[in-house]
Amino acid sequence: MSEHRKPWHGVVVATSLPFNADLTVDHGAYAESVARLAAEGVHGVAPNGSLGEYQTLTYEERDRVVETALAAAPDGFTVMPGVGAYGGVEARRHARFAKEAGCQAVMCLPPNSYRADDRAVLEHFELVASAGLPVVAYNNPVDTKVDLRPELLATLHAEGFVVGVKEFSGDVRRCYEISELAPGLDLVIGTDDTVLEVGTAGAVRAARTDGGARDHRQVKQLTRAGMGWCQGRVCGPAVHCLVAPHRSYTPTERLVATPLTLGALADLDHARENAGGAAHE
């Protein structure tokens, strides 16, 4: 791993999990998938997320999925498993295993079996952080019914419980508030139709839940543009829209309000480089 790249930065794909006909995990196929992703240029994988069907797996199955990913990963390749669970003790157990197995970071949902209050959320992430790995929080209030609000995220970060957040609420305005309240907290884009807006707000990575970067040249363009794709099944075409097609755009937005082709990425990369150069003049 490059000393300049944090494990949760770059292109980290949330992998889907293949099963055999008898619904046992097909570890051979999963290992091949991880190896292929590494060969195509992504920087890591996030097993045992929603796409990995963590809710249906036993502890032993979740552990072996992590071990399979690590065994298939080349040197410098991030394995950042999801440790989502009903409560903090269970999530901490998965985080401890991840550390012992050799993972570099974990991604964690808040408690998701009840509408947790702030006290419960803080205790939950404190337990997970006590395992000793960097924790990227995952804010998905639509599914978990627990909203990691900007002020709560700022507290979690100030306490040293989380290093970043995958922001999935879809509210672009709160991303600026997160940056103001917790400037050291890494912001990850979680919704496809806010890539441009949240990237402008200071995100270090974009999060995808469908499709992915299949071409290593696209991976490099995305990384150079400052927003690596995370949380995406690499099963769709390598062309996606950056912003919703029904909106009207400013002239600047029109530059990237087109299918995400290599040409569009090159334009975005060039624009960002020019902006960076101007800022230093």
What is the 3D form? Answer: globular
Strand element count: 9
**CATH topology, what is it called?**
TIM Barrel
Uncertain segments are 206-217, 222-266
Q: How much strand content do the residues show?
A: 5-15%
**Distance between the amino and carboxyl termini:** 32 Å
- What is the level 1 CATH name? Alpha Beta
Largest sheet descriptor: 6 strands, parallel
Secondary-structure class: alpha/beta
> CATH homologous superfamily name?
Aldolase class I
The overall average pLDDT, rounded, is: 76
User: Can you write the helix and strand succession as a string?
Assistant: EHEHEHEHEHHEHEHEHEHH
Helical fraction: 40-55%
CATH architecture: Alpha-Beta Barrel
Structural summary, described in words:
By secondary structure, this protein is of the alpha/beta class. It has one domain (12-239): TIM Barrel, CATH 3.20.20. The protein has helices spanning 27-39, 59-72, 88-101, 118-129, 141-144, 150-158, 172-181, 195-200, 216-224, 251-254, 262-280; strands at residues 12-13, 44-45, 78-79, 106-108, 135-139, 164-167, 186-189, 205-207, 228-230. The protein has a six-stranded parallel beta sheet. Strands 1-2-3 form a three-stranded parallel beta sheet. Helix 1 runs parallel beside helix 2 (59-72) and helix 2 (59-72) packs parallel to helix 3 (88-101). The two termini are 32 Å apart.
